[in-house]
């Protein structure tokens, strides 16, 4: 834990007291989104202090030229930037001739910021003393409409306390923005033009290269003591900015309010020549509903989301706050409405980790959306990868692979690889297997047998063809070896025979062969279509089986464990517990050379394979591997604590499982890795959900049924969660001494608790 200022609360993230050195961290923690757009919790008014301005639109990106010291053949030509979008929230304020700026106020009292997760609202309030001595009381509420996802709303109240005030509101929209992480200090937006129509303002800008057209829009209204004022603003515009000026005079203890509607319409959803008209339509809908009805709709939309997604924890408010924060951010980032979109690792909270899709989606996010939404949402995530199969084949061809071998990118927006570190781009190839595992996981959970013959088999074939070509025969070992790879542990690069990668490769080829037989037998028309398209043959399948059966895995007979890779035991195996605190985190304190030569593990690697393929190993094997690898793990990846929490719970080590749970659920809230100011770890938040459902709940799908091995941390009195299993909603309640179930469905459901069958009847 590196920060501890967020006040524990079951339904809200709350900060009290204005501290300038934590503004950027809070901008991340209080971020809001609605699946189509999102933004950091920047102040609406001008702020001259240290800040990271950030607004983002789903799917809008820029192919920034890769920046490397020495260009090598095959490097990706660009690194996809999640673009900082034009600003719509801006409201500069002048009071009695002074610019209002929290950074220059004499005093800021009673500062309170609250992210109401239950209702999807961001509130901020305080009392500030201006340099002139005037004291003002301020309340600001902002939300991004969950059901009208091109719209956001702001209500900004100012009450002078110890004197009268002339207040000038300057609401604006501004497309003159740039990314903090721009490689070449480029501006990514070019002006198309701006328009003013009454009290509505529109700025149209286009991204260079990718040519996304975006209209950023606003409309404002002024109130005094709740009564709308008939004020005609003055307006100014440039090519990239529209600004209105409203002047009001209020007496002490009267309240001046500006209400602002704003947002984005994008050419991916509307015709380019109709964007302004589309923005006008959004504003017309907003005005027809009115602010109060929009607020009511927001609360109702979030209530519906929480009805299915909520996890309750009794007796531990920090744990409860942590899981709800994670679930809230996941639902803000991806709604499942648009199959063209995916889940970026920073969501709408920052710019690090450019691109919208990593292996995180398949390994961590798919189970969450599959169980808390419905199988259509999960299938959309798989379809996203199927639609990019041709690009994956192109990616493999660039590296010399043939015959339809597919290498899915480490980072992508459109299927092309856009990651600029060679040891990740070329070597962290386990991401291929993660996509295949997601297909297996989806089929196992949903029972949907149609996806594989319709689309999945082609993906599995491309991936298996890659693995078959990626290994080579070792005359020395008389087995197939996998050279020059990076496993999930990115603190080891260019290693030979990484166990996780090799085991996944073996599994993928065997699974492909199994599914070919399934489709050939049960879906002959689909198989004929696929065979004609891909030229798959029995001889090729036989070769795959032979390669899979003879893959080499490094193993220590003395220790009785699989080794993370060749030569792992040559390293200094000093456990993490003996590292001095000032050495941590090592990714910020050590040279990369020192890290690569150490035995320290960034995240689950060998243990990631044990997580995926748990049923292929005994509990004794898991225990032996956990006891060897976890003490060497620094958990400096956000994806690490959740897997270890699940496995600790499986082994009955509840105190350790609970500690890991707190770390994954409060990773950002408590800033464990000293980087929350850069944005949140969105995709790992799905791992937090897994740590409860799969860890403490012990949920597995086996033999076409749900199995549970519930375990209750001693800090908790009980917990509950819901699962959408094959279109029936099952609520699981775990309390001391008993586990009960409630079923929303039409048919009885057989589940197993510690292998004992329980028949759950639908609730009446």
Query: How many strand elements?
Result: 32
Strand content range: 15-25%
Indicate the radius of gyration in whole angstroms. 27 Å
Helical amount among residues, as a percent range?
25-40%
Name the shape in a single word.
globular
Q: What are the low-pLDDT stretches, counting only 5+ consecutive residues below 50?
A: none
Largest sheet: 10 strands, antiparallel
Distance between the termini: 46 Å
Mean of pLDDT: 95
Instruction: Give the number of helices.
Output: 20
| Broad structural category | alpha+beta
Name the descriptors:
764 residues, 5-stranded antiparallel β-sheet
How is this structure best described in words?
- This protein is α+β, with helices and mostly antiparallel strands and 764 residues long.
- The protein is built from 20 helices and 32 strands.
- The strands form eight sheets. Strands 1, 9, 10, 11, 12, 14, 15, 16, 17 and 20 form a ten-stranded antiparallel β-sheet that branches. A five-stranded antiparallel β-sheet has the order 8-7-13-19-18, with no helix packed on it.
- Strand 31 (749-753) and strand 32 form a beta hairpin.
List the topology elements.
Layout: E1 12-16, H1 23-29, E2 32-33, E3 37-39, E4 55-57, E5 61-65, E6 78-82, E7 91-95, E8 98-99, E9 107-116, E10 121-129, E11 135-144, E12 151-160, E13 165-174, E14 189-197, E15 200-207, E16 213-224, E17 227-228, E18 234-237, E19 241-250, E20 256-266, H2 275-289, H3 291-309, E21 312-314, H4 317-333, H5 360-372, H6 375-386, H7 389-398, H8 422-425, H9 431-446, H10 451-470, E22 472-474, E23 479-481, H11 499-522, H12 524-534, H13 538-549, E24 555-556, E25 561-562, H14 586-589, H15 592-597, H16 606-612, H17 619-629, H18 640-650, H19 654-665, H20 682-696, E26 700-702, E27 705-708, E28 718-725, E29 728-735, E30 738-744, E31 749-753, E32 756-760
Parallel strand pairs: 27-31
Antiparallel strand pairs: 1-9, 2-3, 3-4, 5-6, 7-8, 7-13, 9-10, 10-11, 11-12, 12-20, 13-19, 14-15, 15-16, 16-17, 16-20, 18-19, 21-28, 22-23, 24-25, 26-27, 28-29, 29-30, 31-32
Helix pairs in contact: 4-20, 5-6, 5-9, 5-20, 6-9, 6-10, 7-10, 9-10, 9-11, 10-11, 10-12, 11-12, 11-13, 11-16, 18-19, 18-20, 19-20
